[in-house]
Specification:
alpha/beta; TIM Barrel; 383 residues
Length: 383
Amino acid sequence: MMIYTNARLILPDGVHDGLELSVRDGKIAAITAASGGGEKVDCCGNYIAPGFIDVHVHGALGRDTMEGSPEAFRAICDYHASGGTTSLLLTIATAPLDDIERVLRAIGSAIAELPQVAGAHVEGPFISPQRPGAQRSEFICEPDEQATSRLLQFTDIVKRITIAPEIPHALDCIRAFRAAGIAVSGGHSDAWDEDARAAFSAGMRHVTHTFNCMSSARKRGRERVAGLLEFALSEPDVMCELIADGHHVSTTLMKMLWRAKGAAGICVVTDATAGAGLPDGTRFDLAGKSCVVRGGVCVLADGTALAGSAARMSDLVRTIVQEVGVPLHHAIAMAASNPARAAGLETKGRLEAGADADFIVLSPQCVVLQTFAAGREIFRRDN
């Protein structure tokens, strides 16, 4: 038994003083009032929060999920542990189906070796050619029965898939993935309001990187019609991903999302690519596209589009607390309990007896000092 004391615990209803967190055999054993007994670890008045869960992350330190290697996966996990991430979904970019299957098999093997890997998020190839973002347009394809069946072989690995609701066969595909217990997220989409509503009826309950690569209100004939963005903002049962890195979405738009969805309706994600953790000006590859780190964000080398973020989860939490004015315990929920629900990780994302001992020690400035997964320290800040 290890007892973590002299900390401020971040629980769903706020920040609590005078409590201790007890850990045994990789689980949270108890949260109790401070007492005199047991072997204790002094947290020096810092916060203890549940470990962050990133359901949309492509890479870090020059390594990309699409490499499909244990070395790449470990580098990604290790880097993002420094931002408080204790679980993540390695995210697959648009690519030929043979390559996607290869990477999914590699992720399946990694789950047993790397406890931070909770599965995969397949972001493409079933997306809109009109909204590819930094994805490779030449590999976008329709989710016909054959293509859908190929991915449904990996239901034990795929936790989340991004689909554009308006493309041919999308609704059948959404139903098939939902029936298999996989969360469907609308994204990289040029959908009209009725397309989004049809997808919702078929089982779509999430949207990918809200405001980015997503249709919004526009005129159709004489009428102005909502897009996927407005549908997501207006529908209480849709969870919205948010890249809160200060580059992908402005402060005003983040505030608008916060007002529309509240603490329970937002799931912050890094969408970090291989440029995360690299110095400004460094070039890197994103699924075959040349990119560069510029001004703290990742962009295509020709400067025409963003190419994911260079952020960690703790950076997102700090941004929405300091710039958007979200209370700390709500920001933590957006980074922990909400993504745990989004990925179906029932024992993660909360400080509660019986939950996995995935937690972080966080400074008052939202800097991660230590990260623990299953009670084992996987990151410690040196200074």
